[in-house]
Amino acid sequence: MDTRTLALFVDVAHSGSFAATARRRNLDPSSVSRSIAALETEFGTRLFQRSTRQLSVTEAGQRFLQRIEPILQELAHAQDDALSTQSEPRGKLKLSASVAFGCRCIIPLLNDFQRQYPLIELDLDLTDQTIDLVSAGIDLAVRLGPPPDVELVGAKLMDTHYRVCVSPSHLMAAEPIKQPHDLLTQNIVSFALPAFRKAWTFRSKENTHQEIEIVPKTIISNALGLRQAILAGLGVGLLPDWLIDDDVRNGKLIALLPEYDVTATTFETAAWLLYPSRSFLPRKTRVMIDFLKTAFPGKP
Known about the structure:
Number of strands: 15
Distance between the termini: 49 Å
């Protein structure tokens, strides 16, 4: 029994799949299966129940996982601390973010990051799909929205806010928009998420709330595409400040109803830095977290 086999066992237990673990570690799935089978033979008991549809941890496997995972984490932590005194952060770092946030906010920073940490190999996974961090082998993710799932560990990167925006050309041809209910007469361009295409909630400075049911004329699955459609004069839409603040400053877009806060979900939205729940955080991940927190000091 060696630490590599034990680490494979922990990965398989969390991902529930030999194939997912193999992809994450760039191994052949059969070699992962053989390693786990050898471990079970050494223990004389099954650690996983196997079927054609799923892989689940047995009671014995769960007890072993609870004992061995903290030990492996402590060993990795000790190694990381020892290396940090004599070498730069290194290794492959897999970072995940939405397509729009990644393109707009993260990619422009990568040149500075790589100059500071040239030995870190960055794998940036941009997707608008909800993915499991453990099974996908994600070291760090940026997620947008309300506070995240309690099963994940993380910290707020920055608060986010939404604005109802429109191009000057569309506004000139549209009915006047002075109150939230005036949006009912507009061509609405909406993000594809269900909450965004059903109703928007407005909060006044006096803390009164109005919920406006919307009927989008156009639905777009990607925030970058939605921004482009609004810039082209297709209609009125709801977009986050980090995506359109520059457009508002240079006059390409107009933020409507600035005296109101507006949301399609909750007013407590933010960009969150998330990583799998574990006591040990590799140094390569820690330096990326610190780098992003420095780049985003609370606001976009």
